[in-house]
Amino acid sequence: MIHKIIFSYLAIMILGLSLFIITRRNPVHSVLGMLFMFIHVGALYLLLNAEFLAATQVIVYAGAILVLFLFAIMILNIREELEGELFTGSWVMAIPVGVALLIMLLIGLRSIRPGYSGTHTIEYIKTMTHTKAFGKELFTNYLLPFEVVSVILLVAIVGAIVLAKKKL
Amino acid sequence: MVELHWYIWLSLGVFIIGLTGFLTRRNLIVVFMSIELMLNAVNINLVAMSHYMQDMRGQMLTLFVIAVAAAEAAIGLAILIALFRTKAAGHVDEATELKG
């Protein structure tokens, strides 16, 4: 019961804050809405017994990515943003596309069943602790993707410096 | 216990809101935020699936999605700054150089 109440609160807040983000005129308000949304998503991960990912969500998204967004907003001109059109002319097409995708996925998703069940049961994670179970999986079965991600981050660092330089 | 379907519907709702924002908003920064919304919807779905299938695979993918989202935000905002510096354009309909 308490589980359901917490889930309903988080779901309503996440959906409401998502709508808040895409309808605000001032981008700074959107960023603040996004901060609260990320914290609620982190709480949802806690509800799903993924403590390590909840911490990662708050540190990487709320800590790093949002600060990056705020820096970019600082460079752009906010005064100009406060007047002028909010939406492009393509909303006439975009809203039917969104609604059509929603209906299609709603019909398709009804048939999903969690069929197969693996070895990481709740009891197993409780005895191992989540971080340990996660790390063990990451550094054994997923070592190559982990290394590839480090290359992606290197490319991002170099690319961001090159793109933001004054003279190419 | 909350059923798996509720998590999937929640993630679907966030994804559709992100998609609509991506297609309709004019401000480039809000367009990037909509991409982050969509990535978060995918993450919710992956973690819920991982929990209900008692497997770590979904959570591994979530970690990789978070890393790629960070890289994407850095590159995207660098492109935005370069665009603003060369053309003083911060809106989707002002960058029309590539129009065929």
Description of the molecule:
The complex is a heterodimer of chains A (168) and B (100). By secondary structure, chain A is an all-alpha fold. Chain A has helices at 2-23, 27-47, 51-75, 78-81, 91-109, 122-128, 130-140, 143-164. In chain A, helix 2 packs antiparallel against helix 3 (51-75). Chain B has 100 residues and is mainly α. Chain B has a single domain (4-90), classed as Helix Hairpins (Orthogonal Bundle). Chain B contains three helices and no strands. In chain B, helix 1 (4-24) runs antiparallel to helix 2 (28-52) and helix 2 (28-52) runs antiparallel to helix 3 (57-87). Chain B is 77% helix and 0% strand. The model of chain B has no long low-confidence stretch (mean pLDDT 88). At the A-B interface, helix 1, helix 2, helix 3, helix 5 and helix 7 of A face helix 1, helix 2 and helix 3 of B.
